[in-house]
Specification:
globular; single chain; 323 residues; disordered C terminus; mainly alpha
């Protein structure tokens, strides 16, 4: 279901009546991984990451760049030739996961803690919280997620199986799993952990010293953090007569709506540099200074606006403005 929602496979695989008529999912995975027509596909995502890395090549350490180059080479279909559709997908994904972990570790140890690093980590935290929220919604909003094999699969995907077993041995319980993946502030893979890190970055962003109120992105981040902090895991685990978990569904739907808004607020404030369009629809008459003739005549309102704008922009005195 999750693969179909993100466009990785055809929706027919989700519909029980059409599932038997569709191609086996395992046979579609190689094509899905390398298909450039899927915006959220693995190859498209990696190509976008490489595109951005090239733009800041001078800021990337050589070891990090070698890792990026290795990841890009693994996703070139020409490398596999006719063996592409017989590819061992799990082996390829394991190699990519090792490369991704290497890049993440190099970024954590090599990058100076400037705004560039904060934006990189912000993107990672936003993406991870959205993905974990999507996983929880697809696995647990129906009671089918109670099956032990389903719970274990989810814990493996979120890299939390070892933590779960060290705390709770091998007994799989939905409330405990939700606590670990949603509300546990000590688990680096939980939703709350990501949101707390996001809010820490938001509070460190440049802002007006004289502004007492929170920015729009800070308000959204605080609202999400409070919603997750105040969530009752036992209430989230409750099922209705139809086998659904309405409280969990409401929380995941709220996160699904609010996380993109937070991303858009950050992009609008820091990453989109297009200025406001200026309109000169109304032309006011110019008043000439009395006694001025020829080139000495000055349009007072216009010149006053120019001087004020230059002063506000540069911080210099109006007399220091040069044409």
């Amino acid at each position: 279901r999750m693969l179909a929602e993100q466009g990785h496979v055809e929706p027919d695989h989700v519909v029980p009546e059409l599932r038997n008529m569709s191609t086996e999912l395992i046979d579609m995975l190689p094509k899905s991984l390398f298909d450039m027509q899927r915006p959220l596909g693995l190859r498209s995502t990696i190509n976008s990451a490489v595109y951005n890395a090239v733009r800041v090549r001078d800021r990337i350490a050589p070891d990090m760049w070698r890792t990026i180059d290795r990841i890009q080479n693994r996703m070139k279909p020409d490398r596999y030739g006719r063996e592409l559709y017989d590819l061992d997908v799990m082996d390829l994904l394991d190699q990519l996961l090792a490369d991704f972990s290497a890049f993440s570790g190099l970024a954590a140890e090599s990058m100076t803690r400037t705004l560039g690093w904060r934006f990189l980590d912000l993107g990672q935290r936003l993406e991870r919280s959205w993905q974990t929220n999507t996983l929880v919604r697809n696995f647990f909003c129906r009671s089918a997620g109670d099956e032990p094999v389903v719970v274990e699969t989810l814990l493996k995907i979120t890299n939390s199986l070892m933590t779960y077993r060290s705390r709770y041995l091998a007994t799989y319980q939905v409330p405990v799993v939700l606590d670990l993946l949603v509300t546990d502030s000590t688990n680096p893979r939980s939703i709350l952990f990501q949101i707390l890190q996001i809010n820490e970055h938001l509070n460190a962003m440049p802002r007006d010293e004289h502004q007492a109120l929170l920015n729009s992105e800070q308000r959204v981040g605080l609202s999400i953090a409070n919603a997750v902090r105040l969530a009752d895991i036992y209430e989230l685990s409750e099922t209705d007569a139809e086998g659904r978990r309405p409280h969990l569904q409401r929380l995941t739907k709220r996160l699904e709506d609010q996380l993109p808004k937070l991303s858009d607020a950050l992009s609008g404030r820091f990453l989109i540099h297009a200025g406001l369009t200026r309109h000169f629809a109304v032309a006011k008459p110019l008043h000439v200074r009395s006694g001025g003739t020829g080139e000495a005549a000055v349009a007072e309102p216009l010149m006053r606006d120019i001087r004020n704008a230059a002063t506000n922009r540069t911080g210099d005195e109006p007399g220091d403005v040069r044409p």
